[in-house]
Write a structure and sequence with these properties.
By secondary structure, the protein is mostly helical. 82% of the residues lie in helices and 0% in strands. It has one domain.
Length: 60
Amino acid sequence: MWIAYERAIFETELHRITNVITGIVAPHARMAPRDEGVRLVLEQLGGVKATLEVLPRMER
Protein backbone atom coordinates (compact mmCIF):
# COMPACT_ATOMS: atom_id res chain seq x y z
CA MET A 1 0.00 0.00 0.00
CA TRP A 2 2.69 2.52 0.92
CA ILE A 3 4.66 1.75 -2.21
CA ALA A 4 1.69 2.64 -4.44
CA TYR A 5 1.10 5.79 -2.38
CA GLU A 6 4.75 6.83 -2.63
CA ARG A 7 4.81 6.24 -6.37
CA ALA A 8 1.68 8.35 -6.76
CA ILE A 9 3.33 11.17 -4.79
CA PHE A 10 6.48 11.01 -6.96
CA GLU A 11 4.37 11.09 -10.12
CA THR A 12 2.33 14.04 -8.82
CA GLU A 13 5.46 16.00 -7.97
CA LEU A 14 7.00 15.10 -11.33
CA HIS A 15 3.92 16.53 -13.03
CA ARG A 16 4.15 19.73 -10.96
CA ILE A 17 7.87 20.20 -11.65
CA THR A 18 7.31 19.59 -15.36
CA ASN A 19 4.57 22.24 -15.37
CA VAL A 20 6.83 24.74 -13.60
CA ILE A 21 9.61 24.13 -16.11
CA THR A 22 7.42 24.33 -19.22
CA GLY A 23 5.01 27.00 -18.04
CA ILE A 24 7.18 29.40 -16.06
CA VAL A 25 10.92 28.87 -16.32
CA ALA A 26 11.27 27.87 -19.99
CA PRO A 27 9.43 30.94 -21.36
CA HIS A 28 11.60 33.18 -19.19
CA ALA A 29 14.71 31.35 -20.41
CA ARG A 30 13.67 31.97 -24.03
CA MET A 31 13.31 35.69 -23.31
CA ALA A 32 16.57 35.93 -21.37
CA PRO A 33 18.81 33.07 -22.58
CA ARG A 34 21.94 34.48 -20.92
CA ASP A 35 20.37 34.90 -17.49
CA GLU A 36 22.54 32.76 -15.20
CA GLY A 37 19.83 32.57 -12.55
CA VAL A 38 17.36 31.09 -15.00
CA ARG A 39 19.91 28.59 -16.26
CA LEU A 40 20.68 27.56 -12.68
CA VAL A 41 16.98 27.07 -11.93
CA LEU A 42 16.55 25.00 -15.10
CA GLU A 43 19.52 22.81 -14.18
CA GLN A 44 18.32 22.30 -10.61
CA LEU A 45 14.75 21.53 -11.65
CA GLY A 46 16.08 19.22 -14.36
CA GLY A 47 17.91 17.26 -11.68
CA VAL A 48 14.79 17.06 -9.53
CA LYS A 49 12.77 15.97 -12.56
CA ALA A 50 15.28 13.24 -13.41
CA THR A 51 15.18 11.94 -9.84
CA LEU A 52 11.39 11.90 -9.76
CA GLU A 53 11.33 10.01 -13.06
CA VAL A 54 13.60 7.28 -11.64
CA LEU A 55 12.15 6.89 -8.13
CA PRO A 56 8.80 5.29 -9.10
CA ARG A 57 10.66 2.62 -11.10
CA MET A 58 12.87 1.57 -8.20
CA GLU A 59 12.18 -1.68 -6.40
CA ARG A 60 13.00 -2.46 -2.81
